[in-house]
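Handout, section B. The chain below has 126 residues.
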Amino acid sequence: MWLDRIIENINYIGAIALFVIGLRIVVTHSNLIKRIMGINIMGTGVFLFFVAIGNVTGGVPPIVNPEVEDQLFINPIPSVLILTGIVVVVSITVYSLSLVVRIYENYKTIDQKELSKLISEENNEH
């Protein structure tokens, strides 16, 4: 019985697991690249959740076919939101990685703890 519930909700469980894994990476790692990867994993979990919400068992894409009556359509809004979200996440990732490159060029490190020390030392000197 409980195994059937798990199998029925595997998409939701997977989405939550991805989000929690990404959150753990963001919270526990001080490497900026790993944090960006964690944010991307969290975004993937959110995307999977939206896809799972938009799924309709037995549904077809929302293309009206006049020859067939009483069709069950899937909701197109989550799909559109996912496509928009993917574009936003890719843009933020590229921008974040370019900032990490600039940080490395200036400070020769991408570890946030070391960066905090270097920046506080710079502020104390001025």
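Note. The mean pLDDT is 90. Compare this with the example in section A.
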